[in-house]
Design brief:
Elements lengths: L1 E6 L2 H11 L6 E4 L2 H10 L4 E5 L4 H12 L6 E7 H7 L3 H4 L1 E7 L3 H16 L14
Parallel strand pairs: 1-2, 1-3, 3-4, 4-5
């Protein structure tokens, strides 16, 4: 499983990266800002983690940018507690798999990723469509 991590705060980014690496078979790629999200244009990721500091506005922009060209990837949004409440209003708009508050609670992160892994390995999971060639 391929994960893309686009989180501005270096401490949060490192924590999430190390946590994801605890799952066998998850490969983590790290990017920054819009350029990081753009990595999903040329490479298939099973999940993308986005987080920007400060506030929810940056996270919303990154989610909007990702969803402008990629609708199938599971999306995780990271933000402070107050910002997560604001972002939750956009859950269906951006098809967000999970919201995680920062500072990240490892138990919540592991539970959210485990749900994704279980869903992706279950009998009802459809394989993602192949990525079209870049223009």
């Amino acid at each position: 499983m391929e994960a893309l991590l686009v989180v501005a705060d270096p401490l949060t980014r490192d924590l999430v990266k190390v946590a994801l690496q605890q799952f066998p078979g998850i490969q983590v790629t790290v990017g920054v800002g819009y350029a990081g999200v753009d990595l999903a244009r040329s490479r298939r990721f099973d999940c993308v983690f986005v987080g920007d500091a400060p506030g929810a506005a940056g996270v919303t922009k990154l989610m909007r940018h990702l969803r402008s060209f990629e609708q199938e990837t599971a999306l995780f949004a990271l933000a402070g507690d107050g910002e997560v409440r604001k972002l939750a209003a956009d859950k269906s708009t951006y098809d967000v798999h999970s919201f995680l508050t920062t500072p990240v609670v490892l138990k919540e992160l592991f539970a959210a990723v485990a749900r994704l892994v279980e869903r992706r390995s279950g009998p009802n999971h459809r394989a993602p469509r192949a990525r079209a060639a870049l223009r």
